[in-house]
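Re: [ENG-882] Designed sequences occasionally contain unexpected residues at chain ends

Forwarding the minimal case from QA. Structure tokens:
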């Protein structure tokens, strides 16, 4: 029942209850740096714009080596599916942070 302020008091959700979350904001990335240590992989995403001296980095994913390999396999599988439907993805030249090819 609503209180004097019009709000309903809710008790905390029981442990194990599924919480719906808003999907994360999507960002376009055309630049990625991958680094690793013996325990973690770092995937950093950003954008390179023409005539800009550096990439604008906006996101970093840190994961285990085992999960990094699962990501690799998932990407490989999805690229193969994509190419069956839309044709082969052409290889592009490596682009550095300064936009040079």
């Amino acid at each position: 029942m609503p209180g004097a302020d019009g709000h309903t008091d809710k008790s905390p959700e029981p442990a194990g209850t599924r919480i719906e979350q808003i999907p994360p904001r999507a960002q376009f990335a055309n630049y990625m740096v991958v680094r690793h240590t013996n325990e973690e992989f770092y995937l950093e995403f950003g954008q390179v714009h023409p005539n800009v001296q550096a990439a604008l980095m906006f996101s970093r994913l840190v994961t285990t080596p085992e999960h990094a390999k699962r990501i690799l396999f998932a990407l490989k599988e999805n690229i193969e599916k994509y190419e069956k439907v839309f044709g082969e993805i052409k290889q592009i030249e490596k682009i550095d942070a300064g936009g040079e090819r």
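QA comment: On inspection the terminal residues look reasonable. Helices lie at 65-86. Proposing we downgrade this to a documentation issue.
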